């Protein structure tokens, strides 16, 4: 069956466009497949997402079409793996695991004539340094450190964010009572770790791996601007009482389980399962939090008594992909896959208003020579319908808009080289 060669020549084609539109802020999928390749290996790739996400605001906010609020984005990845001895290996992996890119430009519920549009942009970068120990041909035990950076900016505008999202759903706030909020999250760096193990039987193209990644805590001095706070119905002493302080942002822990096995000559089946702990994730910038607490204590936000977060999620994410790959000849290989993502709860934040997805994918790989290849992939996503709510409404049934029948295309390209 020649499955030992098939293991290295085929499964690489499954990787482009692996994550790209998962729940919450999840983006890359944080694969370590490159580190588990035999010998010395290098790869570089890029994934592109083209989403179409729009919705309609509630009647109290005018039944307005939001327009396409999800921005196109791309992110690169790279990996270097060195087999130092028969029993020890070393790897460097680069990816951009979490991110967001959205802007409302049409609906007045999310815009303000003199203050601009509601928008969010979040970027992260990871460099993972991994050391592996292979006591036998079958086992690989690995672990290492992770260096991570995070930066972003958020702008809240429009009636849906009146009193920063304390809108109750019964009536739209007048424009004069709508403050604006800006947060500039300057780039911050911090460290975490990963650990895992892999088992393989090369003769039947069987390989399984389990990888845990820790949460990573960042303490950031977010530059916050609160515009027009005087129109909020609170005592002047509260409005004037804001102080500068540190904001904690902790990116979530995760677990990846990957499996493949030969099922017939030149053919393998594969499956990937990912869990991300979004339920324990939230962002409450310091000044935003002070105002949120003051608003709730003054009875301005229905159902809240002790402040609220800018972003939070109610559920953990589970993501699964299954597929079949086949080596067509000495130069060409391909795969087909089906993917599912649970989302991170519904209702969900207006800054990312989809609840999971289903997708189908196609990948192709061309190997001009035995030691290098070019791989490409495309996926089509049916994005889950979602009810969108502001941060102040989190944990209540209140919402501001409904998003339905949304889709996305994802594309990936990668080169790999063995040396």
Describe the structure.
It is a single chain. Strand 22 and strand 23 (372-383) form a beta hairpin. The strands form 5 sheets. Strands 1-3-4-8-9-10-11-15-16-19-20-22-23-26 form a 14-stranded antiparallel beta barrel. 6% of the residues lie in helices and 51% in strands. The chain has one domain (3-418): Porin (Beta Barrel). The protein is globular and about 70 Å long. It has 419 residues and is mainly beta.
Structure described in brief:
By secondary structure, this protein is mainly beta. It has helices spanning 3-10, 236-239, 286-297; strands spanning 41-52, 55-57, 73-83, 88-95, 99-103, 111-112, 116-117, 119-133, 139-156, 180-201, 206-213, 216-220, 223-227, 247-251, 254-264, 267-276, 282-283, 311-312, 317-327, 332-341, 348-349, 357-369, 372-383, 386-389, 401-403, 406-418.
Multimeric status of the protein:
single chain
Question: Which of globular, elongated, flat, extended, rod-shaped describes the shape?
Answer: globular
Strand order of the largest sheet: 1-3-4-8-9-10-11-15-16-19-20-22-23-26
* Radius of gyration based on Cα positions: 23 Å
Per CATH, the architecture is Beta Barrel
CATH superfamily: Outer membrane protein transport protein (OMPP1/FadL/TodX)
Number of domains: 1
Calculate the mean pLDDT score and round it. 87
Total count of helical runs of at least 4 residues: 3
Uncertain residue ranges: 8-13, 168-176
Number of strands: 26
Largest sheet: 14 strands, antiparallel, barrel
Report how far the terminal alpha carbons are from each other: 25 Å
């Amino acid at each position: 069956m020649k499955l030992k060669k098939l293991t290295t020549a085929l499964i690489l084609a499954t990787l482009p466009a692996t994550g790209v539109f998962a729940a919450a802020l999840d983006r890359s999928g944080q694969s370590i497949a490159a580190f588990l390749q035999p010998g010395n290996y290098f790869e570089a790739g890029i994934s592109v997402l083209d989403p179409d996400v729009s919705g309609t605001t509630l009647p109290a906010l005018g039944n307005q079409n939001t327009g396409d609020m999800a921005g196109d984005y791309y992110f690169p990845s790279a990996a270097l793996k060195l087999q130092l001895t028969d029993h020890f290996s070393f790897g460097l992996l680069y990816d951009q695991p979490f991110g967001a890119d959205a802007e409302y430009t049409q609906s007045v519920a999310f815009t303000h004539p003199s203050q601009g549009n509601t928008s969010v942009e979040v970027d992260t970068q990871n460099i993972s340094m991994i050391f592996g120990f292979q006591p036998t041909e079958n086992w690989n035990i690995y672990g290492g450190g992770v260096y991570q950076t995070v930066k972003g900016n958020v702008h809240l505008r429009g009636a849906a964010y009146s009193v920063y999202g304390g809108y109750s759903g019964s009536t739209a706030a007048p424009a004069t009572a709508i403050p604006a909020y800006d947060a500039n999250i300057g780039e911050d760096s911090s460290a975490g770790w990963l650990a895992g193990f892999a088992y393989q039987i090369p003769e039947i193209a069987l390989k399984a791996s389990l990888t845990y990644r820790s949460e990573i805590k960042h303490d950031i001095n977010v530059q916050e601007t609160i515009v027009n706070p005087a129109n909020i119905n609170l005592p002047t002493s509260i409005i004037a009482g804001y102080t500068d302080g540190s904001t904690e942002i902790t990116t979530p822990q995760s677990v990846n389980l990957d499996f493949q096995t030969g099922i017939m000559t030149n053919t393998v089946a594969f499956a990937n399962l990912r869990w991300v702990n979004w339920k324990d994730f939230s962002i409450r910038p310091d000044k935003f939090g002070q105002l949120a607490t003051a608003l709730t204590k003054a009875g301005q936000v229905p159902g809240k008594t002790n402040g609220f977060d800018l972003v939070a999620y109610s559920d953990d994410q589970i993501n699964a992909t299954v597929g079949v790959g086949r080596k067509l000849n000495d130069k060409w290989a391909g795969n087909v896959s089906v993917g599912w993502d649970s989302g991170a709860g519904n209702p969900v934040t207006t800054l990312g208003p989809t609840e999971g997805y289903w997708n189908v994918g196609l990948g192709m790989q061309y190997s001009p020579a035995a030691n290098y290849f070019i791989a490409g992939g495309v996926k089509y996503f049916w994005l889950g319908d979602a009810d969108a709510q502001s941060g102040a409404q989190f944990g209540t049934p209140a919402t501001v808009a409904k998003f339905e029948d949304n889709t996305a295309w994802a594309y990936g390209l990668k080169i790999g080289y063995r040396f």
